[in-house]
Amino acid sequence: MLPMTPWVRRLLIANVVMFIVPKAVPSLYYGLALVPTAIVARPWTVVTYMFLHATPTHIFFNMIGLFFFGPRLEMWLGGKDFLKLYFLSGIGGAAFTFLFQPAFPVVGASAAVYGVLLGFAMIWPQERIYIWGVLPVRAWLLAAILVGGSLWAGLTGSQSGVAHFAHLGGLGFGFAYLKLRDWRKGSARREFQRKIEGPQGGKGGGLGDQSAVRRWEAIDIEGLHELNRGEVIHLLEKARSSGARSLTLEERQFLERMAASTGAS
Prior knowledge:
The chain contains twelve helices and two strands; from the N terminus they run ααααααββαααααα. By secondary structure, it is mainly α. A two-stranded antiparallel ribbon has the order 1-2. Strand 1 (128-131) and strand 2 (135-138) form a beta hairpin. It starts with 5 loop residues before the first helix and ends with a helix.
């Protein structure tokens, strides 16, 4: 089974379609591309530019990044928050281009994909990512390299023709959105914590812990997306050995979403 989730699949299809269609209708390409100095007259381009790509290599590398990092992140954040991260990162790329490279026309999903990669690195910083399938790099280090590389290239003007400030905008807006999301969910998390702790509370592990673990154990592992089976198995082992409180709130919320998606109760 392909490692795919609903919105990642739709985004991949949309990007491929919009790479092919403008070949037959060149005027469409220029009408949807981002020209920073024309944003006021063509405001839709802050979104549409993300679905255009200049070359097969351009779209290939962007879609590879979305394909490998997007599904797991979509399942963790949920479809709605994943889309917000993706599009806000892309809009951030447009904003930074407007501010720092106003004469630089831009196309491509790079800023949005950089936001997805950053989200992946923030949630799974120690995950090993194999560059070209060979060189292992921790996710946090890869994100740091992307930030540093884009900043250096943008300031020095190296690799002309590449929208480095758009990449930085994607990373910056993606980071800001994820932090804002965490802050806004603070009250919801505290409520979730109270539910998990149950009526007995304290350090002894209340009834809420026991019922939560039973609910998570009822998750249909085989019915899950393959990218999430290992995650669920790992978290269940952690919960069984150390109790539900050993899980972070994000981990508990992830298990709750998996339980709801498979009808566990």
